[in-house]
Amino acid sequence: xxxxxxxLDVVAPDAALYSGDVTxxxxxxxxxxxxxxxxxxxMLGELAPGGCVVLTDADGTRKAMAVQGGFLSVTADTVTxxxxxxxxxxxxxxxxxxAVLESADEGSEEFLRAKSRVRAVEAVS
Length: 125
Fold this sequence. Notes:
Layout: E1 6-12, E2 15-29, E3 32-36, E4 43-46, E5 51-57, E6 62-74, E7 78-88, H1 94-103, H2 109-123
Parallel strand pairs: 1-7
Antiparallel strand pairs: 1-2, 2-3, 2-5, 4-6, 5-6, 6-7
């Protein structure tokens, strides 16, 4: 199975959130949703506002992170996500974020942050 995995590193200014071997990573970029598997062509992408990153680790466990802004870099055997801010879905209070979505102006930074968090929770529900 080692040939079907690749290294994923997710970092934000305040923390390294994830570093490990995964079989799949999915992220929203400014040009659409992208799935990355082992041996993906090298690329550089900008992460979409209000997006999330979903990964499937080497043992098949799915995890999601709310990611606000940043970039992803794909090389021959590593994907690096450089996020402005990121948070694991299990650390998110979805009811509070739903309330923010209802009260914030659509497209505002507050709205996009809440949208990102709700997406991350829904991605692994």
